[in-house]
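Please review this one:
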Amino acid sequence: MMAALALLLAATLMQQPVPRPFPVPGSTKPAQPAPPPPPRPPASPAAPPVAAPADPIAPTEALLGVPLYPGAQFIASYEAGRGQRFYLFGSSAAFEVLVSYYRTLLKQRGELVFAVPATHEFDVGRFREETMAFPPSVTIKDYESAVSQGYPNPKPGAQPARFPTIIQIVPVTEK
């Protein structure tokens, strides 16, 4: 029985052609050259970057009571309590650049609140304890470090993918 099975297996194997991965010298068919790649379209000059359209839900400088750093992108706003909100903006500018910008613009030194991560705060209005949860301010925070590549952009596919610096604004409001 075993001999019959072995004979059947040998006969089956002999009927299958042996695959040849390489041409045999002296074969009658010459190797066909690979077809050329399709032509590439001519390279067009790089288009200048287009300014992103303004975010329709972004707060205005009039609402905030302070100017925004040019190119800062609105991320979100949050309820701060006692009828106040604070607004987050992402920027591709370095922490030091933003601090220098707001020092010049607000004509004050502000205060380095934390050294690591670097956080600088500028008071921009009078704090009224009875009506406010937070003083009106502009706070700059450095999100790039050895352990962080920046604050993730919450808009999928948007550029930049991460913001090295965040601007938090508690608006100047008078009640």
Observations:
- DSSP finds three helices and eight strands in the chain.
- The first strand starts at residue 73 and ends at 81.
